[in-house]
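Rotation project, supervised by the postdoc (A.L.). Task for the rotation student: set up a whole-complex structure prediction and record inputs and outputs verbatim in this book. Inputs entered:
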Amino acid sequence: MKPLNIFLATAPGFEDMLEAEARDLGLTGASAVAGGVTFAGHWPAIWRANYYLRGATRVLVQIGKFRVFHLDELERLAMEFPWDTTFKPDSEIGLDFTTKSSKVNNISAISQRLAKALRATVGVSVDEKAPVTLRVRIDNNVCMLSVDTSGDPLHIRGHKQFVGKAPMRESLAALMLRKCGYDGSELVVDPMCGSGTFPIEAAEIARNLAPGRSRDFAFQHLATFQPDRFAAIKEDRPARDTDLHFYGSDRDAGGVKGAGENAARAGVDDIITFAHHAISDLQRPAGKPGLVMVNPPYGGRIGNKKQLFALYGALGKTLRGGFSGWRVGLVTSESGLAKVTELPWQKNRLTFPHGGMRVTLSQTGPLP
Ligand SMILES: C[S@@+](CC[C@H](N)C(=O)[O-])C[C@H]1O[C@@H](n2cnc3c(N)ncnc32)[C@H](O)[C@@H]1O
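Outputs recorded:
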């Protein structure tokens, strides 16, 4: 069988990091493109990618591509299409459309014709709440059919039921940890941890816990799914013990409690200590220097500025005073805020869109 074209979607700006992760996972030929990573492979590679990749948000597979200029032609091609190689008879799927610079561009007519063909050929009915979505993109008169094999976005691991005020997505947190050189072999401290995303991801990486271990995926509903082979894939990267410990603290008591509950659901609460205190009371943990990863409050109204500058000043003072030898990764929206910490930022800052603003990840080398 010919390999399939597979697309791993990720946060813009982090494509290179995901490419490195995909290659580490053995997805050969993985190559970064705008918005994600592409590679060619078979269904088991799709199951592996969904189950093990920490930085992907979705895994899409292309199941068809043809030129189309008229609705009748679309219907004829859809009637001839081998849907049964992908979809189970009598199942339900959702449809998602985009069209650009094409003669066939009436979404409701496209939807009607495709739904008719799916029903007539394989008995599939269209239901927006179905676990599987067929994505139809018609661009320059070329129709591309892909299936979203993930279902819920992959940052939803199934453990973070408590979410703080501005939670970081797990996939983004994992990519930022990787960008800061974290590979599961050093301590990680987050002194403004909110719902605990950084310490929990770091602890899971240290333990080699698969991010998909507690959730289901859309591919399990497809005709191509082989439960035995997927069960074997789940076994081939076993969890390991670690002597490392991880630390999260926050001045918000509710956040600290919720982060602890998230860690317990993820099965890493025994290697993370969450504490309730402000940044100025942060103590350096015993042991070799590691990584401080922090995402303080940022942006917002002008009135907040003075407070924010004081907060970033306190963060810088604490880290400069007590964390010699540690590296720091800081996520914030304004370079001015990073500057007031007086930490020795490297030049290779990474700026990316996040939650409607431009956000920057700044890093230091080991602090003097
Ligand atoms: C953007 S949120 C962090 C979100 C977190 N990364 C997550 O995934 O949930 C910023 C956090 O900083 C905390 N914070 C604000 N001022 C603080 C201070 N002076 N000391 C400690 N934590 C503080 C807030 O309570 C909030 O939880």
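Student's summary: Residues 164, 166-168, 192-195, 197-198, 250-252, 255, 278-279, 295-297, 311 surround S-adenosylmethionine (CB under 6 Å).
Supervisor addendum: The domain at 4-148 is CATH 3.30.2130.30 (VC0802-like).
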